[in-house]
Specification:
With about 90 residues, this protein is mostly beta strands. The protein is about 5% helix and about 40% strand. The protein has one domain: Beta Barrel (OB fold (Dihydrolipoamide Acetyltransferase, E2P)), CATH 2.40.50.140. Belongs to the IF-1 family. It comes from mine drainage metagenome.
């Protein structure tokens, strides 16, 4: 939101739905699930999100059932020296 009243939360992707929508379970709650969509920057930069990924989201204080995914968290087990599973990938 532009006025800075959004709530930042972290969650884990539970299900991938059609139309770039996701069911996300919040990390610090007791099983609360929200419906989330991808923000414009993630869509523009072709950031892929799959089930099981940890994401950072913004929620409106007026509707706590919907959210906007703003950041996909890095996997802690990825070895930075190896480069990850897409090390050889180069966009032309």
């Amino acid at each position: 939101m532009s006025d800075g009243k959004s709530i930042e939360v972290e969650g884990k992707i539970v299900a991938v739905l059609p139309g770039t929508m996701f069911k996300v379970e919040l990390v610090n709650s007791n099983g609360h699930t929200v419906l989330a969509h991808i923000s414009g920057k993630l869509r523009k930069n072709f950031i892929k999100i799959a089930a099981g990924d940890t994401v950072k989201m913004e929620m409106s204080p007026y509707d706590l059932e919907k959210a906007r995914i703003t950041y996909r968290m890095k996997e802690p087990s990825a070895n930075p020296a190896f480069g990850g599973p897409r090390a050889g990938f180069r966009r032309r």
